[in-house]
């Protein structure tokens, strides 16, 4: 075979690989003047995915999803929320409503259209707040993937045990304030509880180091606001296709996450078993299964 006949194929493969590996970094300036660090990977014309991490977590923790989906031809955007990761760390704005406004700024400034938002933990709450607060901007979003967030984290003291269990309301108000006021001491154990016992020490230490990029004071303020929210009236008003993911080994018992799915019209749901490493961080501990679920949902 002549070299000239191989050249077009070689050029195509090089072009496809370059497109998959294309990466852009930058900052989005929010409406109140805070710089948020973002990264975009994958071909520019690929189907849009936006990943939102959880409380104290960073965009870097989505790296197993970024590598997979960018390589599969998707255009993947991640960003660090204010106070988190590589973003600016002001001493104001640590409330979910402000984080929803920041998300809206990200969508607008990066011109994200027909995007699937994948939220983990508090990232789901940010997405729910955005959906509630910005109805005229909903056309930006084509679907949601919601990973392991209950609609109500703090139980009403007047509820029965059964009512609290149905919603996976795992905290009392006192417990939230106790955690917020003892953050430095409790953070290592809290992070460890979000994984199965099979998490490697190196992975645990790296995740913990990502958490400590946010100050304890800002994290405490955000935790209190996040934990005391109630999203039950928002869920039935979500009108785009939605996949809800739970885990049998999560800090949130799966019943409450499955309840979330039951409240969103037409939502699909999947619960990771304990054998599938269904922790709060199933997307990290079993990225192959998580990525396959998301891709199947997107291609349905």
Automatic annotation (TrEMBL):
Keywords attached to this entry: Hydrolase, Signal
UniProt signal peptide: 1-19
Gene Ontology molecular function: hydrolase activity
A single cellular component GO annotation: membrane
All residue ranges annotated as the AB hydrolase-1 domain in the record: 49-286
InterPro entries per the UniProt record, alphabetical: AB_hydrolase_1, AB_hydrolase_fold, AB_hydrolase_sf, Epox_hydrolase-like
Annotated protein name in UniProt: Related to non-heme chloroperoxidase
Organism annotation: Cephalotrichum gorgonifer
